[in-house]
Amino acid sequence: MRTFKVFKASLKMIFRDKIALFWAMVFPLMFVALFGIFSQGMSGNNLGKLAWIDRAADNTSASLKQAVEESGVFELTEKGWSLEEAKEAMRNNKVNFVLLVEKPEGAAGDSVFPEITLFTDVKNQSVNAAAASFFDDLKRQFFTAALVAQIDYVLGLDIDPQAKQFYADLKKELESSGAPVRQEQGGKNPVKYYDMIFVGLVCLGIMNYAVTGFAIHLASLREQKILKRLLTTPLPMHRFMLGEISAYLVLAFAQLGVMLAVGMGLFGARFYAGWSGWWFLLLLTLLGALLFLSLGFFLAAFAKTVNAASGMANGVAIPLMFLGGVFFPLELLPGPFYQVFRFLPLSPMIQAMRSVCLEGDPVSSQLPRLAIMLGWLALTAGLGLAFFRFGDE
Amino acid sequence: MSGDRVIEVQGLVKFYGDRKVLKGISFHVNRGEVFGLLGENGAGKTTTLEIIEGLRAASSGNVTVLGMDVSKDLPRIKERIGVQLQSSAYFEQLTLEEILDLFRSFYGKGMEPRELLRLVGLQDRSNTRVGQLSGGLKQRFSIIAALVNDPELVFLDEPTTGLDPVARRNLWELVRGIHEQGKTVILTSHYLEEVEALCERVAIIKEGEILTMDTVANLILRQANPIRLDFLPRGGLEPGLHWRLSEMGELRESGERAGELTLFLRDLKTLKAALRELELVELERMAVSTANLEDVFVNLTGSRITGEEELPAGRAAR
Fold first, then answer.
1. How far apart are CA A171 and CA A152, in angstroms?
2. Which residues of B touch A393 (CB under 8 A)?
3. Which chain A residues are within 8 Å of B83, Cβ to Cβ?
4. Cβ atoms of residues A194 and A39 within 8 Å
5. HEC states along B189-255?
6. What domain range is A65 assigned to?
7. Is the pLDDT of residue B309 over 50?
8. CA distance B200 to B219
């Protein structure tokens, strides 16, 4: 009854503190929305807007343009710009690339392949190489197609059978070598980059308010001597903490609900998990929230003021955010770094959630990661209990 | 419990690191009385109170509250005491009624929140948050929050510190009301007039030691010179008269008005003699009264307490 009263009061306090609640919900949601917008802007393989300047104006350049359009790699823009106007548009971020298509010098009629020049924007380094590579491949394909057409012409002539066989083999060879490389995802599910990021952001959201919010809350209660006042009552402090933790767990699940609604409902994030995966998500949320509340409790033990608690909590939460693999898979790190960072408190939560909810791995395969989380929970709770002071002594 | 003592403190010693802040304090509090611990800031009042409340551990000594040992029976003691801490706050996001209801739930028995709010005229502000109250109302609220379990023994640590005189006197009425309900009150203060107005018995504490302890009246009457004569001579006293008056008792600058002198005298006979000496002196004002608690404090400690600051002792006028 007493614990329930504390729980009810704590819940009221959490939801009445509108500013703290706003930031608890909005901070991770900002990332969810931001990455969601980026991912929608980069949907499919679209690399950006391409200004098409066609000075060749022949059948080949028309075919080339058709091939680019059909590829869907670029969003083509044709506004009758001169090359200089197109470059200016690129400098003003109206387009991302400018492609100049010209006839080779001295060529007349349809060229075998026009000369193409890709102008890129220095700000788009991450996609420039991909765009250049795309046109290299396209050029190779066109060249191959032109050769095959010439071979077909030769094969239509009455020539020596041995020579005919040679050309037929050559055609076959060219066709196979000119075909684009087939690309297939290795995993079981068609996981997008945003799905992976979204899982990291869900874990980040749960961690952030649990660590920062709880550490600041406890430091504030102590600074205002509310904890000391509670010590003068018969309420055992473990019951008070149980009520407080229960209220914060409700908030963690509310956060999860809001993030799933926004990430999945608005930005199309997907989980590839059956019922067991969803239950596992809830279990991970519970375990993660407990672990990070415990970390907040531990930090509050050493923070004499609210400002100190805020600084310490951010000092821990921000490195965990970057080193725990929120924004990239930890497996991309060099071996020794991976071996260290995978043991940080946030890392096993994110890795386990990605494995089960995105890759569809069985829950049983995540036991070692759950064990790491339980280890952190035991360590921080133990140290917190050893060092946290409710009163002055 | 010996007799009807609700608190018994024996040989209380407390160290903060190497610093001995309580040097073997002993006293008792009787059921139904208002007992005051009077002393300057840092004298050890709050430490003493917090050891009795179970918030701090004594380095040595024994404390029993309501017949129970604080070191062994604290949960049972907490059920029966009410504590108002020095400058503690309450949950900012809860209303007054919700806070009282929450604290009420920690005890086996208690008073209804609205009934408590009515005690201090806050019944119409039950949905207000603590942060929206004035300093005086906050203190009144913190005192009724100490009454949620209808305690037998109420601890008030500097209940009026920081309040204006009107709010302070309003709070005194509240404390008197609590006392009239038959509750025992132990309070600390550095306001002499507060202790004089509220407490039946007082312990004066300095640097971790109790200098004296008795009823306010007895403390005054136990003075060597309990009669007080304040006078303001126009143009000062001639040296011969100054010397003769000093020989009759204890002559000091009053410290309240420039040029005013206070002569402490042992009995009516010396008072009459002093008045005869002053017959030929032109006086701007003169008043005769008994000595007060401040005089007792100055005599015992050699210093005065005004507000929160220690001032030098009333200097001898010679």
1. 8
2. 55-57
3. 229, 232
4. yes
5. ECCHHHHHHHCCEEEEEECCEEEEEEEHHHHHHCCCCCEEEEEEECCCCCHHHHHHHHHHCEEEECC
6. 48-178
7. no
8. 11
Report CB contact under 8 Å: A392, B50: yes
Using one digit for the tens of pLDDT, what is the confidence trace for B185-230?
Answer: 999 988 888 998 999 999 999 999 999 999 988 998 888 888 999 9
Contacting residues of A for B55, CB less than 8 Å apart: 228, 231-232, 391-393
Distance CA A85, CA A71 (A): 26
Q: Residue A257, SS3?
A: helix
Q: Going from the N-terminus, what domains does chain B have, and what CATH number goes with each? A: 5-219 (3.40.50.300), 224-290 (3.30.70)
CB contact under 8 A, A391 and B54: no
Alpha helices in A261-331 (DSSP H): 275-302, 306-323
* 3-class secondary-structure state, position A258: helix
Chosen from B56, B59, B90, B93 to mutate, greatest number of chain A CBs within 10 A: B93
A364 touches chain B (CB under 8 A): no
Asked if residue A184 is part of any domain, the answer here is no
**C-alpha atoms less than 13 angstroms from C-alpha of B220 in its C-beta half-sphere:** 18
The CATH number covering residue A79 comes to 3.40.1710
At A18-51, the pLDDT tens digits run: 887 887 788 888 888 888 887 765 545 577 889 9
A162 shares a domain with A233:
no
Q: What is the mean pLDDT of chain A?
A: 86
Inter-chain contact A233–B98, Cβ cutoff 8 Å? no
pLDDT digits (tens, 9 = 90+) for A99-152: 988 887 776 665 566 788 899 887 777 678 778 888 888 888 877 887 888 888
Nearest to A228 among B78, B88, B105 (CB): B88
Burial bucket for residue B81 (CB in 10 Å: 0-12, 13-18, 19+): buried
Residue stretches of chain A with pLDDT short of 50 = 43
> What is the share, in percent, of chain A residues with pLDDT greater than 70?
93
Cβ-based burial of B86 (10 A; exposed 0-12, middle 13-18, buried ≥19): middle
**pLDDT tens-place string over residues B245-272:** 999 999 988 777 888 999 999 999 999 9
Task: State whether A125 and A164 are in the same domain.
Answer: yes
Yes or no, beta carbons of A231 and B94 under 8 Å apart? no
Looking at CA atoms only, how far is residue B152 from chain A in angstroms?
14
Contact list in B for residue A9 (CB cut-off 8 A) is 91, 94, 98, 102
* Residue range B120-140: mean pLDDT, rounded: 90
Query: In Å, what is the CA distance from B63 to each residue of A52, A244, B27, B206, B211?
Result: 92, 33, 10, 20, 19
Q: Does ipTM surpass 0.90 in this model?
A: no
- With respect to residue A64, please indicate whether it lies within any of the assigned structural domains: yes
Tell me how far CA of residue A198 lies from CA of A30, A86, A318, A357, B318, in angstroms.
12, 37, 17, 11, 85
Strand-pair category, B261-265 with B227-233: antiparallel
**Beta pairing, strands B283-290 & B184-189:** unpaired
Chain-chain contact of A2 with B83 (C-beta, under 8 angstroms): no
Interface contact B88-A226, CB threshold 8 A: yes
> Of B145, B150, B89, which is closest to residue B117 (Cα–Cα)?
B145
d(CA B149, CA B107) in angstroms, rounded, equals 6
Nearest neighbour of B94 by CB, restricted to A13, A230, A391: A13
Do A84 and A157 lie in a common domain? yes
Q: Structural domain tally of chain A? A: 2
